[in-house]
Amino acid sequence: MGKGRVEAFTDGVVAIIITIMVLELKVPHGEDLSALAPLWPIFFSYVLSFINVGIYWNNLHNMFHTVQRVDGRVLWANLNLLFWLSLIPATTAFMGENHFAPVPVAVYGVDLVLCGVAYRILVTKLHRLHGNDTAFAKALGSDRKGKISVALYITAVLLTFVNQWIGVAIYFLVAAIWFVPDTRFSRVIEK
Amino acid sequence: MGKGRVEAFTDGVVAIIITIMVLELKVPHGEDLSALAPLWPIFFSYVLSFINVGIYWNNLHNMFHTVQRVDGRVLWANLNLLFWLSLIPATTAFMGENHFAPVPVAVYGVDLVLCGVAYRILVTKLHRLHGNDTAFAKALGSDRKGKISVALYITAVLLTFVNQWIGVAIYFLVAAIWFVPDTRFSRVIEK
Amino acid sequence: MGKGRVEAFTDGVVAIIITIMVLELKVPHGEDLSALAPLWPIFFSYVLSFINVGIYWNNLHNMFHTVQRVDGRVLWANLNLLFWLSLIPATTAFMGENHFAPVPVAVYGVDLVLCGVAYRILVTKLHRLHGNDTAFAKALGSDRKGKISVALYITAVLLTFVNQWIGVAIYFLVAAIWFVPDTRFSRVIEK
Amino acid sequence: MGKGRVEAFTDGVVAIIITIMVLELKVPHGEDLSALAPLWPIFFSYVLSFINVGIYWNNLHNMFHTVQRVDGRVLWANLNLLFWLSLIPATTAFMGENHFAPVPVAVYGVDLVLCGVAYRILVTKLHRLHGNDTAFAKALGSDRKGKISVALYITAVLLTFVNQWIGVAIYFLVAAIWFVPDTRFSRVIEK
């Protein structure tokens, strides 16, 4: 089964997710700059989520490069990932509109944990399909980065109840780790 | 007439349908977990519809693999299917916001019946275009699964007026039947 | 300049237009069928617009088949068409929410006139670019259908002020004329 | 790394941005033409933004034609541009709903400045990746047009506080400059 349409559909859904978040930036009616001030937590959460969804797009882009085929299990593992990603606009708005209160920040983090787990599942299904001795498996390695991210997200969710800004800081830290696109896959592509 | 753009357009519309449903998950303003509680029927109906639309995407993906060409009738049969699929966000919200009351659950089921019928029409038009002695026709067979689904959806709609949860249970049952992507088509592709 | 990305972008915008119209079908909060009754004008206008946008997609699909190249003028003529098409969700809602009152029905028709004119402009630019002795020009012929549609839409807008249902009837009449995809282009493709 | 999916994703996001702006054209409930009158500033700002986003799509379309490959830096520079473009629906609505008051007009301009800067950054990263002696570099030249646009936008933002219509006029002036698609790139493509 070809990977072309899975890529196209995934790109489509991710493009919509990343764009509809902006619908939350509801327009203030005041005419001066102070009217924009109450928007900052919504804007700030939008920036964080734009980066996070951008990272997923980037990594999916690089990963699918070395993928050679897909099967039914991969299609569903991919839809599972898209499901948790599709909740990001809602959890982002929940966090932003409640001005980064602890529970919404934790809920946002739980969604990130589930996205991370879904990504790991997708990678595992692809690994099983391709076998150990393929470009895909070599590029993936032990996927330490993926495992560390999930662990950090869980830590962030827990620490949110000490102080929510620790949670937010860890979300940015994980984003920074992934910011550089997954060079493992690009390194293999170069060869 | 090539099938490429029909596939791309269909993927685009389905990607948008599956994603805009999340706009119904309107953000609660409370800052704690109890604020999320009233969202459960909307979330639950979102999950059901995400799976249903995902199944359509999956099956359309597999089916178009064995398709060799399309004509005007197929284009319109496809748009007809997209029309009924495009109502799913509205019927999902109707069902979720009314906490699975019988009439909204039945209306949701009627939309599923119409999607199922539209899928059958599309398959029939493609069958007629390709003839009996083609990969497409062999993969399709008698389409028992498609016919049973429509029959089950009609049963579900009727039983909703006895107890709506029977209806909901049947919707999940049909989803489970289709969850495994249509191996008939993939089996033919493998060869 | 290749036509691939213009097709893809056009498909994307049309897919979004056809899908976001459904956001107007706002969910009623009543739990029984009578709650759906007030939705009928919005649903009815949605059906009409879904068919109209579907027709444009269909005809653009067929037309671009015989197109061989595009230039800057074509890109802008295409964006111009997309602009007027992008207003259809708004004019549809204006018509539906005001229960097919004369002025909204006329405004809807004016948008259809402008879409029709924009389509004629696009076709003319493509004709000029391809020259008379090409598959495109032969498929296009005198474009009587395009010219008649614009004339009928103008008539419909004017007759709306006698009785708006005459206008609505003509909108459906034009849709019926175009419903069969433009066989001129498909005929040329067959050869 | 191939450029195909970056193009497709970019097209998708731009298609969504250009289309969701129309959701701001909220339907008036009056039944006559006077009901449309209060919409003019929103409609006027929609037209300006449709042209602006259309210009970006057009120029990205032409620019990616001469691009031969992309790397991680280009992907992020592209996402950065998409981020600032994604704010256009919000800044457009802010400007339109406040009837072109000075501060919203300036905020809109600041977003255009940031889009322009992001476009320059993207072009620079691509230039560095391709080297000086390539079709891309030759097509780009000194990018005077890009630099002048940013300078004009900054001027427009400042002059908005003298009179906001000077700002709006300059926004239209820059649009006019870019309206003709970037012939530098198309000239190279022709060869």
TrEMBL record, chains A, B, C, D:
InterPro entries: TMEM175-like (IPR010617). Pfam families: TMEM175. The chain crosses the membrane at residues 12-29, 35-55, 75-95, 101-122, 150-180. Keywords: Ion channel, Ion transport, Membrane, Potassium, Potassium channel, Potassium transport, Transmembrane, Transmembrane helix, Transport. It catalyses: K(+)(in) = K(+)(out). It is a multi-pass membrane protein. The keyword ATP-binding does not apply. It is found in: Membrane. Belongs to the TMEM175 family. This is TMEM175 family protein.
